[in-house]
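Dear support,

Our group has been running a series of protein-ligand predictions, and this particular one with guanine is the one our PI (initials K.S.) wants archived with full inputs and outputs. We had some confusion internally about which version of the output was final, so please treat the block below as the authoritative record. The input we submitted was:
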Amino acid sequence: MQLIDGKTIAATVKSEIANEVKKMIDADQNPPHLAAILVGNDPASETYIASKERACKEVGFTSSVYRMSENTSEEELLKTIEFLSNDEDVNGYIIQLPLPKHIDTNAIIAAMDPKKDVDCFHPENVGRMAMDMPCFLPATPAGIMMLLERSNIETEGKNCVVVGRSNIVGTPISILLSRNSKKANCTVTLCHSRTKNLKEVCASADILVAAIGKPEFITADMVKEGAVVIDVGIHRMEDNSEKGYKIVGDVKFDEAAPKCSFITPVPGGVGPTTIVSLLSNTLKARKNQLNF
Ligand code: GUN
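Confirmed final output from the archive:
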């Protein structure tokens, strides 16, 4: 069993991005600028935003965070989106999800400028991705592709099972892995709450992507001997340690890992490459590479 070291892979890509930023600064150009909108005080969202800000600093990007109260109206949020869309100093922006319940998330995403939508949430960008047109790739799926590619894991012709059909991870990773490309070409099965015989389907996977959002949902009997397992989940689970909790993924790591050829740890697997993919999209936006 080999651990897929997301931290090291992310550090390599970060240094590649930092080199490009240095060249921009040496040429008296502005570095890329990523802005984030955070509505409310969800602790997980606060942690994600702090990690994204830290990563921006590490590679020399400018970053800014627009903090809005839990009671912000949809109208106020739309004004902030319009402001960022028109601000020439901002190359890309994200709206941290989840948004408070009184806000229509799809309407908010549709109001974003697709050229600055570095999360690839806007319907235009999702459509471009599905059609294999030049586009930003959504951060977590792009991070997973980065892990597979940089760990030299063969994907062509493999049976890949994705568990979870969210717009952010499950659905887009199923699209990317089934693309006609040497780095993909998988036969993909997308599983969800209505899937029959889930255990058997998972146990048939050469590559199993766990993105179900349930702690330790994937048990050893759902993993084929020699499978590659990518664990997208990250959860706090209470225990008797000094901290009172441990961080776990969607996979029961201790029992599944011995059966795997490769597995991502949690933390230190998918998380770091997700953030790097966001940086990579922001660099792309700064260079205006996509010719929308
Ligand atoms: N909430 C959970 N994951 C993400 C993400 O990748 N982007 C944004 N904007 N919000 C999230």
